[in-house]
Amino acid sequence: MKTIIIIPSRMSATRLKGKPLLKINNLPIISHVVERAKETGIGEVFVATEDKEILNEVNKNNGQAILTGTHKTGTDRIFEALNLLNKKDIDLVMNVQGDEPDIDIEDIKNLDIKMKQNSSSI
Q1: Which helix (H) or strand (E) holds 54?
Q2: CA–CA distance, 29 with 1 (Å, rounded to integer)
Q3: pTM of the prediction?
């Protein structure tokens, strides 16, 4: 089974403005999340965003991003991104939150294992 990780991200957070691009050790939070997701080795990693600033920053930092329309939820953003990517060989879609720069990669790996064991789709 093949998994894709899609990280929804947007600049319009209300509690902390511009959160995805705030830097920790000179790297934006969203890029830290992308790197953690890539370290798992479980599949391709994409950021789904409505903001060109995020798209450019992710691409600049060796990540992959796709521009979506405006959505009310991250799940809606992921759905559009998946359709835009048009990847036919994906069995599982994993939503990793874009504001957890210290996410434990073992948690992501374990979720992938559980998704496969339970034949989850998202």
Answers
A1: helix 52-60
A2: 29
A3: 0.93
